[in-house]
Design brief:
This is Nucleotide pyrophosphohydrolase. With about 110 residues, the chain is mainly α. Helix content is about 70%, strand content about 0%.
């Protein structure tokens, strides 16, 4: 069983699809992402990952589950939309201008 099928089965067994519209899924993605972010607040990354990896996995899974549900509701293929986004990012961030730099694509114009 693919992961989206497992997610949908969990949801459907509980008759929760009725609550999973795009607006509420977007809200849930944001809320869960903020719960993930909160794990890192006021700590360095190493401290968090060593002490909180189980909680990080849980919160990351929540973000991904809601993301999968939204994609499924909108009949979007996860692999396809990620591949499309990577192609766009490759154009925005050519290796020749962005390698080793943590700059937004709008700041790369002045690079080599």
């Amino acid at each position: 069983m693919e992961i989206i099928e497992k997610v949908n089965k969990f949801r459907d067994d509980r008759d929760w699809r009725q609550f999973h519209n795009e607006k509420d899924l977007a809200i849930s993605i944001s809320l869960e992402a903020n719960e993930l972010l909160e794990l890192f607040q006021w700590k360095n990354s190493k401290e968090v990952t060593e002490k909180s990896i189980d909680k990080i996995k849980e919160e990351l899974a929540d973000v991904l589950i809601y993301s999968y549900m939204m994609a499924d509701n909108l009949n979007l293929d996860i692999d396809e939309i990620i591949s499309e986004k990577i192609k766009k990012n490759e154009l925005k961030y050519p290796v020749s201008k962005s390698k080793g730099l943590a700059k937004k694509y709008t700041e790369l114009e002045n690079e080599k």
